[in-house]
Structures are given as structure tokens and as C-alpha cells.
Amino acid sequence: MTNALANTRLNRTEQVKKFWSPGERWGPESDELTPSWKLRCREIHLKYGQILDGLYTL
Predict the structure, then answer these.
(1) Are 30 and 24 in contact, with CB atoms under 8 Å apart?
(2) pTM as predicted
(3) What are the DSSP calls for the chain, one per residue?
(4) What is the pLDDT of residue 51?
(5) 10 vs 3, 15, 20, CA distance in Å?
(6) Residues 51, 22: contact at Cβ < 8 Å?
(7) In angstroms, rounded to a whole number, what is the distance separating the alpha carbons of residues 35 and 8?
(8) For residue 2, pLDDT beyond 70
């Protein structure tokens, strides 16, 4: 299902306005996940904080 099609089924306040996908895969060998596949929030915030903050501004 595309974003446009999914958005037609949602109220305006629920619709996806912006999204971002990292260029590389995350895994235990990367800084973003632990060996048990849990998110490392501090590392994600340090590496992608500016990008993520930009998603919340319109």
C-alpha cells in the first residue's frame, strides 16, 4: 500500500506528512541496535537527531 492510498483512509490529523528511511540496514553489528536487537536510543539520537527533529516540523 502506498503512502497516498494509506493517507486517504485516515483523518487529516492522522495522515503521514513526512517520513525518512535510513540508507543502511540496522543490525547488532551497527551502533543502532544491541546484540538482542533492542534500540540504542542514545546512539540513534546522536546520529540521526537532526533528521528526526526535522520530521516534526512542518
Answers:
(1) yes
(2) 0.65
(3) --HHHHHHTS-GGGS-------SS---TTSSSB-TTS-B-HHHHHHHHHHHHHHHT--
(4) 92
(5) 11, 6, 20
(6) no
(7) 39
(8) no
For residue 22, give every residue at least 6 positions away whose Cβ sits within 8 Å of its Cβ, in sequence order, or none: 48
With b for 16 or more beta-carbon neighbours within 10 A and e for fewer, the 29-45 pattern comes to eeebbeeeeeeeeeebe
Rounded CA separation 53/45 (Å): 10
Q: How far apart are CA 29 and CA 52, in angstroms?
A: 22
In angstroms and rounded to an integer, the radius of gyration of the C-alpha atoms of the chain is 15
